[in-house]
Each structure stands twice: as C-alpha cells, then as structure tokens.
Amino acid sequence: MKFTVGYQANDDLKEAVIENRGKITEIYFPWGGFTSGRGEDLDEYVAEGLGANLLLNGNCYGRHAQSRAFFNSIGDTVEELVGRYKLGSVTTTSPLIAKFLKVNFPSIEVRASINMEIGAIDGFEYIAEWFDSYYLRREYNYYLSKLKAAKKWCEENGKKLYLLANSGCMNFCSAHNFHDNLVAHQHEIAEMDNAYDFRGICHGFFSKQQNKRSMLRHSNFIRPEDVGLYEGLCDGMKLATRTNRSPGDVLRAYCRGHYSANI
User: Fold this and answer.
1) Rounded percentage of the chain residues whose pLDDT exceeds 90
2) pLDDT digit string (tens) for 142-167?
3) How far apart are CA 223 and CA 229, in angstroms?
4) What is the spatial distance between Cα 86 and Cα 80, in angstroms, rounded to a whole number?
5) Which of 34, 61, 135, 178 could cross-link with 65 by S-S, CB 3.0 to 4.6 Å?
6) Rounded to whole angstroms, what are the CA distances from 109 to 23, 27, 88, 235?
C-alpha cells in the first residue's frame, strides 16, 4: 500500500518519511501559516522523489468563495508551488476550485476531499468533469461492497480512489459539518470573546464508560495490521499526521503493518 502523509515541522516525522520513502507517494500540506522550516522540508521531500499535494479543502471560504481575487490568489499560489516543489496534485472541497484548476492547470491532479463526504457512485459522477480522484466517505472503510463498487467505477472511468486510514472522527457524526465550519473560521473565532470551547462531541460521548465499550462500532479506523486487506481496493491511503502528537510513530506503524501499543 502507498501512503500520502500530512506535513508538519517535526524532525521525527521527517526521519520516518525518509526511512520509508518507498511506501510514500506524496506529502500533503496547506499553504500559509506554516512554521518557518517548511521550505527546507519540502525541498528535501521533493529531492527524495515524493510528490507534493496542496490542501485547499476548507469547508467554507465565506464571501471569497466565488471572488475573482480569490481565484487569482489560488492561481498565483499553484504556479509558485509547481515551480518550487513540482506540485502534482491539489485536494479540494470546492467544485469551483476544481474547475479553475482543470481549466488553468490541466496537468494537476484534482482530488475530491474527504470533507466532501462522497459515499455513492452518483457523487463521483456529478463532479467527474472536474475531479481526477476521490476520497471515499470514511464511514464506508469497512463496507467491502461499497469499496469494490467505488474502485470498479474509478477504474472504468480513469479515476483514482483513496481512503483516509486513521480518522479521529466518529461515523456519521452529527456535528461534523458544524465542526468543519469552525475550523474554517478558526482565526476569526480566536479573535472573539467566546462563551464556549468546542473540541468535538466525541470527547464528551466517549467520556461515558458505556460508550467506550461500543467504540469500534462508531469508528472507521483502519488498523496498521489490516492495511493489507485493502490492496487492490484503493490507490492509496491518507495518514492524518498534520496535527498528531507522534506523527513519526503513526507513519512507521502503517509502513510496518503493526503496532504493539495504543496507536
């Protein structure tokens, strides 16, 4: 299995990436708000033959979502990253961004974000004109029939299929879209005198002992030990390592195919 790995400025992650570069296809990252080491890190990753994937996967862009200035900025950014890091793909939630990229940067692979929650072939077909690859809705990671059908459609239509291996979200979370919108506006929210802190409803739900017993039923987490079961069912797996406290350990566990502690 090949993995796409989330960037963060972390020496142990960098070491793990270099150690396992044969199993990693690309590094994905947002642009803007990075720590100062990003340029050197990305140069090293590209020099090792890894691809670069830009995240434009915000759930809300507010009043800028259709503005000419917004798309001019995207164009300038993508052009810069193609030149600097050989940018090969962009992951987005916006059909308009996808359309803009296919018109102006036809060689870039445009990938439908996991945040779009596409769980049916119809969802693939609706946006097939502008997207080259898709993340399948995380809730269907355990559904073999849906995985097979999605991969078959993608192969027949010249598309690629990806899965998110280690999501921290519960299945069919009632507050998922609300939470994604908070993340999209996090800088504005941080400037306010806020009455409540919101870390997701999962923390409260699993703080109750009776709910911990049914954790697997609420999960879509693919264990490192089970990655081999997905060979041939997807073109790669995304590892959520951008904000993880031990991203190197996560990456090594999936590349080895096992972990003997609490992953």
Assistant:
1) 75
2) 999 999 999 999 999 999 999 999 99
3) 10
4) 9
5) 61
6) 20, 14, 6, 14
